Amino acid sequence: MKVIVEILTGRFFYIEIEEDATVEKLRREIAAVEKFEGDRLVLVLDNGKLLEDEKQVLAEHGVGDGSVVYLHFASNVEDLDQHTEVEDCMFSIL
Description:
The protein is α+β, with helices and mostly antiparallel strands. It contains 2 helices and 4 strands, in the order ββαββα. It has a single domain, classed as Ubiquitin-like (UB roll) (Roll).
């Protein structure tokens, strides 16, 4: 399936990934394609839900062909534990 990944700057790109791929696999693919540090990536669905559980299959979150995933960056790994700021930011955008 092809997932649309949008960075909050407005730039977007596509990631081709298997139907049964996990959140972890999507994060690794994005990091590899865009040369980002994978452990700093914060993935958010268009409904504001964070993709946190690395082992969960994307389809369990309703992610399918053509789905949009918003990409945020944690300033450091410890920021990944502070989800409220990212969620607040997403809801103000949506």
